[in-house]
Amino acid sequence: MSEVVLLRSLDSLPAIYRVLETETERVVALRFTGDSTASDCIFMDEVLMRTVARVHRFGVVYAVDLRLVPQAAQRFGVQPWRTFSLQFFFRARPLKVDAGTGDTAHLTRPVSSVRQMVDLFEVVYRQAKRGKWLAVAPFRLSTGA
């Protein structure tokens, strides 16, 4: 049975900046949402919670509730009407991820498995360590078409 770890929450813009500035050797994933009860958000949170323990050496995940930190939506380019938005950072720089959805700044569709999420963290981390700010996901997310 895999270990499940609750996502740590950031409840202010200074707390977000502090994490981004102090995490210098790991990828930081911020999961933004305005509705943590939406089914896609709940599913993604479950995947992320199971992923955290597996990527703790090179990645960390934080949850940001846009109802508590509304200014984060504008600062990080998050569309608050989306059920969730996942954005990656390394050494305070935003990383882009091409998962086949057209939006490389944020993942806005759920990743279907923990294995895929771990693989994504590994690819993003390797690219970031090489100074590359765009990573191609090892899978494609459905466009729902």
Please provide the count of β strands. Answer: 6
How is the largest sheet built, in terms of strand order?
1-3-2-4-5-6
Largest sheet: 6 strands, mixed
Q: Which structural category do the helix and sheet elements fall into?
A: alpha/beta
Which CATH architecture is right?
3-Layer(aba) Sandwich
Helix content: 25-40%
Tell me the domain tally.
Answer: 1
Family: Belongs to the DIM1 family.
Subcellular location: Nucleus
Keywords: mRNA processing, mRNA splicing, Nucleus
Protein name: Thioredoxin-like protein 4B
Folded structure, characterized:
The chain has 145 residues and is of the alpha/beta class. The chain has a single domain, classed as Glutaredoxin (3-Layer(aba) Sandwich). It contains 4 helices and 6 strands, in the order E-H-E-H-E-H-E-E-H-E. It has a 6-stranded mixed beta sheet, with helices on both faces. Strand 2, helix 2 (39-55) and strand 3 form a beta-alpha-beta unit. Helix 2 (39-55) crosses helix 4. The termini are far apart. The mean pLDDT is 91.
Task: Record keyword descriptors for this entry.
single chain, 145 residues, alpha/beta, Glutaredoxin, six-stranded mixed beta sheet, 4 helices, 33% helix, 22% strand, globular, mRNA processing, nucleus, mRNA splicing, Dim1, Thioredoxin-like_sf
